[in-house]
Amino acid sequence: MKTRSIEVVVSPPNPHYVGDGFRVHNFIPSGYHLDMQRMTPFIMMDYNSPFYFPPTDKPRGVGVHPHRGFETVTIAYKGKVAHHDSAGNSGVIGEGEVQWMTAASGILHKEFHETEFSKAGGDFQMVQLWVNLPAKDKMSKPKYQGITKDQIKKYQLADNAGVVEVIVGQYKDVTGAASTFTPVNLLNARLNKGGKAIFSFPKNYNTGLLVIEGSIKVNDTEAVEANNFVLFENDGEDFTVEATENAIVLVLSGEPINEPIAAHGPFVMNTRNEILQAMEDYNTGKFGYLEE
Amino acid sequence: MLQNFKQYFQKNVQITDEQFALLSKDLKSEKIAKHTVLLKPGDVCKHSFFVDKGLLRSYTINETTGKEHIIQFGSENWIVSDRSSAYFNEPSDFFIDAIEDSTIVYIDKEFTDKAAEISPLFRQYNEKALHNHIRHLQKRINLLLSASAEQRYMDFIRLYPDIMLRVPQWMVASYLGITPESLSRVRKELANRHFKPL
After folding, report:
1. Which of A274, A284, A266 is CA-nearest to residue A44?
2. A169 has a chain B CB within 8 A of its CB
3. B198 to chain A: nearest residue by CA?
């Protein structure tokens, strides 16, 4: 197997607020080299780097808003988030947990810091990804998968190197619990200092990693600090990650969805007309209703 | 920069790239931050604001209640102005400000005079734009006087398909002349009628 080389290391862009509860660096699609077609099926990635939110009685977050045409994935590292949607699903995720919402044909949802977390205040760190759906599944039924800690399968690395948690997809012989529409791998590698893991994905899969905590060395050469994103070339299968101090690394790799992308705000479809239709359907109540 | 403005202008008055370059030589455009105030009551409106990117609104604030009443939203390719203040050179009653970070083209009399010289179609276009504006205002007065909240809302989403996605609901309610609670009710009733779970 050939080594997959690094295309670029992207440092976190200036943060902005999504609602009042998420202070995020947008890597995909506005980061250098990280547009939607380059990164497909990952069409958006916001990263809330560690940030302290002071106590409040009024939970911070994002009010009711729609989505159509893709899936939203929230991975919590610090803090707790509550989710409600117009399909009647709700859930709270905390440290080490993931929510996977398939917006597909259309959903309204809201995301707020969980009430007790808001009252106490605390450190907050999350990743939100949008995973695109192929045209044939864009208008399928919305669904929600809350992936709790005990559902996340783990692969124990040899020599006390650490552990690789499989959110979806596969690592070695471990398969993740959540289901996807196209092949997607999302892994959290929790490595001890000096621990090393090797990752292997088909060459054509668009692949990157985000250093959540600590610092690492990629392919034995490139040192990467926390909060930086590494984009890999599509020139090989294998790469290695070695922790130069205790580290958490989010690895993402997915089969490209080679279709046209028409994106406008919270809708990602294939054509401009489908976007206009999404706006009309949202405006006229076809996404349902959700109380603010 | 100003791609929307150029396209809009060329489509409407059919001028060449060279003519556009000549015309836009002294044209002022600017990136403005969200909340930037472009006009306030008492000032004479010297410009029409063409929105190349972003979103503006014109509105009044009731001095007694402090309530905001939105007259108009203007997103990409819209022109927001107080035409009567500009034409009659009299103090405006309105605020105009940016709801999003925006790129604005400042259109003034000098520009329109020059445009009329360069393109014989400009006066025709400008007259049509003025009458289109009057048509909208008349329709809006009639809706405010006679239509139900739902009819006003349905007209609003036809005119502004993406504004519900870009502004808080209270602003839309303010434009429609209804309370935010009424707007929620209208949207809830529409959802009850139109939402068909798969």
Report:
1. A266
2. no
3. A141
User: CA angle B72-B75-B79, nearest 5°?
Assistant: 65
What value does the mean pLDDT take over residues B130-139?
95
Could you say which residues from 159 to 198 on chain B have a Cβ atom under 8 Å away from some Cβ of chain A? Answer: 161-162, 164-166, 169, 184, 187-198
Domain ranges of chain A: 6-254
pLDDT at B181 over 70: yes
Q: How many domains does one find in chain B?
A: 1
CB A128 within 8 Å of CB A84: no
CA B28 to chain CA centroid, nearest Å = 19
Domain assignment present for residue B114? The answer is yes
pLDDT on residue A178: 87
Helices (H) and strands (E) in chain A, counts: 3, 26
Which of A66, A284, A292 is closest, CB to CB, to B190?
A: A284
CATH of the domain at B96: 2.60.120.10
- Domain extent, residue B77, equals 3-118
Which residues lie closer than 8 Å to A265 by C-beta, 6 or more apart? B162, B165, B166
Residue B175 has pLDDT above 80, yes or no: yes
For chain A, the residue count is 292
In a domain, B178, yes or no: no
From the number of C-beta atoms within 10 Å of its C-beta (0-12, 13-18, 19+), residue A209 rates as buried
How far is the C-alpha of A177 from the C-alpha of A158, rounded, in Å? 23
Complex ipTM? 0.89
Q: For chain B, give the mean pLDDT.
A: 94
Global confidence as pTM: 0.92
How high is the pLDDT of residue B79? Answer: 95
What does the buried/exposed string (b/e) look like for A9-44 if buried means 16 or more CB atoms within 10 Å of the residue's CB? bbebbebeebebbbbbbbbbbebeebebebbbbbbb
pLDDT-derived band at B1, boundaries 50, 70, 90: low
Residues of chain A under the 70 pLDDT cut: none
Angle at A170 between CA A169 and CA A172, to 5 degrees: 175
Residue B169: list chain A partners with CB under 8 A: 292
Has residue B153 been placed in a domain? Answer: no
Q: Is any Cβ of chain B less than 8 angstroms from the Cβ of A279?
A: yes
- In a domain? residue B149: no
Closest CA of chain A from B92, distance in Å: 33
The letter for the amino acid at B51 is V
CA of A32: how far to CAs of A22, A39, A165, A210, A257, in Å? 22, 11, 28, 14, 21
Q: Note the pLDDT of residue B3.
A: 80
Establish if A174 touches chain B: CB-CB under 8 angstroms: no
Superfamily of domain A6-254, CATH level 4: Jelly Rolls (2.60.120.10)
User: What per-residue confidence (pLDDT) applies to B15?
Assistant: 87
CB contact under 8 A, A283 and B164: yes
